[in-house]
Amino acid sequence: MIVYRVGKTRYAEDLTGEGARLNGGRWNHKLTPCIYTAESRALAVLEYTVNVNIDDIPRALSFSRIEIPDAGILVLSEADLPGNWKQVPSPFATKEFGTQLLKAAKNLIIKIPSTVIPNEYNYLINPAHPAIKNCKVTAIVDFVYDVRIKQV
Q1: 2-149 topology per CATH
Q2: C-alpha span between 85 and 93 (Å, rounded)
Q3: How far apart are CA 71 and CA 26, in angstroms?
Q4: Residue 147 DSSP SS3
Q5: Contact criterion met (CB below 8 Å) for 82 and 25
Q6: What is the DSSP letter of 28?
Q7: Cβ distance 110 to 104 under 8 Å?
Q8: Distances from the Cα of 89 to the Cαs of 10, 86, 115, in angstroms?
Q9: Could you read off the pLDDT of 56-108 as tens digits, one per residue?
Q10: Helical H runs in 7-137?
Q11: How does strand 35-38 pair with strand 121-125?
């Protein structure tokens, strides 16, 4: 299966989850590594957009195309998630929920609904899982962010 991530070019090959470990995210507390990816390039851009300030968008961005195993994916539905999972900013409950799943390390991949686009999905990759070696960055493509997306 192929998933996508938008990020700074210098980290395009990184599969350590260090950025999420340092900063936390919707589905992880700080100090818990996680790689946030999306099922399409378009969803990856939208997810990136809602999580970055316009002044912090670097000039050197890239799409990372990541191949992940098809088997053993934990698939979560909205009913499985904390009741406030769409809240902005990300609530403690979602961070706690995801952190517990990541620390349990039962699944390399967690398929989780997008808060941005109903019926589309993000894929959380657990870099602490022993099968991380089965995930590979297969392409890196420069991406010029169109700031019109962030204009009010």
Answers
A1: Diphtheria Toxin; domain 1 (3.90.175)
A2: 7
A3: 24
A4: helix
A5: no
A6: B
A7: no
A8: 27, 9, 12
A9: 888 889 999 999 999 989 999 999 999 999 999 999 999 999 999 999 989 99
A10: 18-23, 41-50, 92-104
A11: antiparallel
